[in-house]
């Protein structure tokens, strides 16, 4: 809201006083722009080390080298410990059955009825190795332009720079991820869907990245973790048609 009024004030000032904007810097320098040169003005949203209130989603600063800010909630979740929605990779709606045949990019046949495309078949090639920020990005589509699915590199950075601890939050199993600056997010152990069956709730977390494994149409990188014996996290490649969770990042 504060930013909204700032923009209104700026637009009013431009109309009232002329066709030039002068920025007065703290070091006493001034920078001038002609209005005709400016396409748009944006203001950075606030970031936090932890959720400051219950008005989720928040952008959490974990102190990562890339500057990536992670969302406090999953796509479709109303709180950090809510599992949220389950989506096949590239789809933007939940379903009752997750398999190759129900998959938006299915092509070919499933003659033995096992839910998998016949051998030597494939999915439709959408011509993208990364879907972040596109119409195939469920975070972008459902949460607005500020959010997108994390890339493989962003999930990798999370794993390389943060520590994890298995905890329960409001009776939900998951991991508490702590960044080098002390910022924290909670990732619920969400399990996954194959066909109409839900697997591993409370035991494993399975989160899509936006990055397809190069040259392959069937598998995508995902972040997985285990909260059964000890807490550990790793990479996995997963068939696109499974129903998995998404923890977004703020679009940079
Ligand atoms: Zn939050």
What does this structure look like?
This protein starts with a helix and ends with a strand. 34% of the residues are buried. The protein has two domains: 36 residues, no CATH class; 192 residues, no CATH class. The strands form seven sheets. The chain has a three-stranded antiparallel sheet. It has three helices and 16 strands. The longest helix has 16 residues. The chain is an alpha+beta fold and 252 residues long. Helix content is 13%, strand content 29%. The model has no long low-confidence stretch (mean pLDDT 88). Strand 13 and strand 14 form a beta hairpin. It binds zinc ion. The site of zinc ion has 6 residues, from loops.
What descriptors fit this protein?
252 residues, alpha+beta, 2 domains, 3-stranded antiparallel β-sheet, 16 strands, binds zinc ion
Order of helices and strands: HEEEEEEHEHEEEEEEEEE
- The value of Rg in angstroms is 21 Å
Please indicate the percent range of residues in DSSP E strands (runs of 2 or more). 25-35%
* Spatial strand arrangement across the major sheet: 8-9-10
Main structural class: alpha+beta
What are the segments in which pLDDT stays under 50 over at least 5 consecutive residues? Answer: none
So what's the oligomer here?
A: single chain
Instruction: Please give the number of β-strands.
Output: 16
How would you sum up the global shape? globular
Largest sheet, in brief, is: 3 strands, antiparallel
Query: Counting H and I runs of at least 4 residues, what is the number of helices?
Result: 3
Distance between the termini: 21 Å
What small-molecule ligands were found?
A: zinc ion
């Amino acid at each position: 809201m504060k930013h909204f009024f700032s923009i209104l004030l700026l637009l009013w000032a431009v109309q009232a006083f002329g066709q030039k904007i002068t920025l007065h810097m703290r070091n006493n320098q001034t920078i001038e722009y002609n209005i005709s040169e400016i396409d748009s003005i944006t203001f950075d949203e606030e970031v936090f080390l932890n959720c400051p209130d219950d008005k989720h989603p928040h952008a959490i600063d974990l102190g990562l080298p890339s500057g990536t800010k992670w969302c406090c909630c999953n796509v479709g979740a109303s709180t950090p410990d809510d599992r949220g929605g389950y989506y096949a990779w590239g789809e933007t709606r939940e379903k009752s059955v997750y398999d190759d045949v129900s998959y938006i990019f299915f092509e070919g046949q499933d003659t033995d009825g096992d839910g998998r495309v016949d051998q030597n078949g494939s999915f439709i090639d959408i011509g993208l190795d990364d879907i972040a920020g596109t119409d195939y990005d469920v975070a972008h589509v459902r949460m607005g332009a500020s959010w997108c699915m994390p890339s493989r590199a962003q999930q990798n950075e999370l794993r390389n720079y943060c520590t994890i601890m298995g905890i329960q939050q409001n009776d939900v199993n998951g991991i508490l991820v702590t960044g080098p600056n002390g910022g924290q997010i909670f990732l619920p152990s969400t399990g996954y869907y194959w066909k109409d069956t839900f697997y591993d709730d409370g035991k494993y977390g399975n989160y899509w990245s936006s990055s397809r494994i190069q040259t392959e149409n069937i598998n995508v990188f995902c972040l997985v973790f285990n909260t059964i014996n000890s807490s550990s996290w790793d990479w996995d490649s997963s068939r696109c048609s499974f129903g998995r969770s998404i923890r977004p990042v703020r679009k940079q």
